[in-house]
């Protein structure tokens, strides 16, 4: 969504924030349940491909990744703490083998109890390379399989989504991901055949924001696979929860400064093209995330040390 905007219709009805979010399911792993093995692959794509600018030796992107894979899990009510403990086993398994497939995990503050695992990448080829990384490592695949089975008792559903970057609709400098702690994510569903109205609305909002609140930052993605399309996903993030106040203020200033033609474009999208718009906030979970030692060194108190554990024994044939 476009951060901080409560509404963008011409009559200034405060119905929903403006944001752009894309999601889609991605390839599934051969050895483990698809939604789990894809996490390793997705993360590798997101963070381990040369075509994506990365922080030096940190494994986190420093520019908007061309592709993003999202593993979205709906956690059973009352099982959030158990789910988090089980999920911490994934970073431990990857840390044990010095995996380069880093990823960020976040849990919902609003909406349904969910956990999202975000994996950036530069190409589908890179994604599949990460997906296949552990095929010949019997001990690691056995441990990931165990974690997947345990996870099945703690979640209601899992969905894997892949989306492509829309830098032409995004705005602002790319954030330092090692310092971001909270996210606001918008899922925008558009009527089939009305994608051009979404593009026009996003550009109109961006133009108004450039004038009224030039520090506004958000990333727009368009879903390719994994959920009904056309769907867009908009990511904005902050280092402190209090920063959402400024995000909201920027959104209001943007809407108030929109020109007549920009408001007309936003109104047309709202009335003719929009099916649904859902905004939710998430908290970064360092224990469920798998990041490099260099990233952890930027804030050891928050990130903790690189997880590790006893290497599981390989299954006998």
Kindly list the characteristics that best describe this protein.
disordered N terminus; Alpha-Beta Plaits; 317 residues; globular; 8 strands; alpha+beta
Can you walk through the features of this model?
- It is a single chain.
- The protein has 317 residues and is α+β, with helices and mostly antiparallel strands.
- The protein has a single domain (34-303), classed as Alpha-Beta Plaits (2-Layer Sandwich), CATH 3.30.70.100.
- It contains ten helices and eight strands.
- It has helices at residues 34-47, 80-87, 89-96, 124-131, 138-152, 195-212, 243-257, 260-273, 293-298, 300-303, and strands at 67-75, 104-108, 114-121, 155-165, 182-190, 219-225, 231-238, 274-284.
- An eight-stranded antiparallel β-barrel has the order 1-3-2-8-5-7-6-4.
- Helix 3 runs antiparallel to helix 5 (138-152), helix 6 (195-212) crosses helix 7 and helix 6 packs antiparallel against helix 8.
- The longest helix is centred in the middle third of the chain and has 18 residues, at 195-212.
- The protein starts with 33 loop residues before the first helix and ends in a 14-residue tail after the last helix.
- The relative contact order is 0.24.
- The model is unreliable at 1-57 and 311-317 (pLDDT under 50).
């Amino acid at each position: 969504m476009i951060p901080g905007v409560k509404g963008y219709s011409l009559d200034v009805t405060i119905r929903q924030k403006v944001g752009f979010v894309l999601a889609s399911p991605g390839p599934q792993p051969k050895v483990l349940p698809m939604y789990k093995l894809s996490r390793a692959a997705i993360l590798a794509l997101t963070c381990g491909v040369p075509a994506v600018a990365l922080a030096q030796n940190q494994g986190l992107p420093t520019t908007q990744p061309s592709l993003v894979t999202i593993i979205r899990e709906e956690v059973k009510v009352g099982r959030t703490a158990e789910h988090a403990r089980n999920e911490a086993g994934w970073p431990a398994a990857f840390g044990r083998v010095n995996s380069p497939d880093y990823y960020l995990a976040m849990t919902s503050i609003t909406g349904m109890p969910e956990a999202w695992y975000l994996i950036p990448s530069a190409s589908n080829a890179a994604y599949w390379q990460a997906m296949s990384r552990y095929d010949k490592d019997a001990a690691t695949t056995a441990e990931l399989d165990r974690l997947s089975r345990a996870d099945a008792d703690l979640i209601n559903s899992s969905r894997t989504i892949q989306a492509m970057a829309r830098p032409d609709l995004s705005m602002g400098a790319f954030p330092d991901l090692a310092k971001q702690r909270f996210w606001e994510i918008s899922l925008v569903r558009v009527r089939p055949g009305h994608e051009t109205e979404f593009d026009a609305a996003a550009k109109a909002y961006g133009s108004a924001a450039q004038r009224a609140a030039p520090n506004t930052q958000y990333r727009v993605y368009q879903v390719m696979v994994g959920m009904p399309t056309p769907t867009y996903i908009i990511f904005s993030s902050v280092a402190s929860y209090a920063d959402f106040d400024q995000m909201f203020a920027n959104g209001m200033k943007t809407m108030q400064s929109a020109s007549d033609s920009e408001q007309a474009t936003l109104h047309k999208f709202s009335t003719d093209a929009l099916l649904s718009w859902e905004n939710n906030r998430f908290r970064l979970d360092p224990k469920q995330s798998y990041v490099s030692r260099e990233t952890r060194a930027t804030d050891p108190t928050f990130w903790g040390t690189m997880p590790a554990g006893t290497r599981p024994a390989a299954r006998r044939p």
